[in-house]
């Protein structure tokens, strides 16, 4: 991935942003997670991991990319179902729970303003530990988000999803700068014809 192609986080939740790492550019489907380095860069970018917690040689790991892509595909299918107002499949639940079995974190007591807090210390020793972290993100998504506000971008040629947190829940585009402007321009030219 080149420097100017930074990840965009328009989904409103890291689970949606994970699915949104597949985008349409021009008319091509582009996978922004092209190699292990992209996966790690994305995880750092959304602050799901810290560099210090990465304790294996991920550069040369033969399965990291494959495992993350496989989970992402299952999450895409889940979003497709949610947007179609269908129940989340048992298969999906199973996929999430299987990944969670590799969840690796140690609770730690820390001081905070006038009291105490619990913090989780992570140690990622293998790809499955990273995917377990993604599975936990899926749990957070399903347990805290009102799923009726999950939308697919109104641009038919776009495959991004987002959480519509706008006041009257009328957001239509993954981003105003991208699809919003493009669709407005298209509507304008259609009127001018
Ligand atoms: Zn879009």
Which labels suit this protein?
two-stranded antiparallel ribbon, binds zinc ion, alpha+beta, Jann2411-like fold
Question: What would your notes on this structure say?
Answer:
It is a single chain. This protein has 193 residues and is of the alpha+beta class. It contains 6 helices and 6 strands. A hairpin with an 8-residue loop joins β5 (150-152) and β6. The longest helix has 20 residues, at 64-83. The radius of gyration is 19 Å and the shape is globular. Bound molecules: zinc ion.
Q: Looking at the structure, what is the overall shape?
A: globular
Strand portion, in percent? 15-25%
| Radius of gyration over all CA atoms, rounded | 19 Å
Mean pLDDT: 94
Distance between termini?
39 Å
CATH architecture term: Orthogonal Bundle
Helices and strands, in order, run as HEEHHHEEHEEH
For CATH, the homologous superfamily is named as: Jann2411-like domain
Layout of secondary structure:
Layout: H1 14-19, E1 22-25, E2 28-31, H2 36-45, H3 64-83, H4 90-100, E3 105-112, E4 115-122, H5 127-144, E5 150-152, E6 161-163, H6 176-192
Antiparallel strand pairs: 1-2, 3-4, 5-6
This protein binds zinc ion (ZN).
Concise summary:
This protein has 193 residues and is of the alpha+beta class. Helix content is 42%, strand content 16%. Helix 3 (64-83) runs parallel beside helix 5 (127-144).
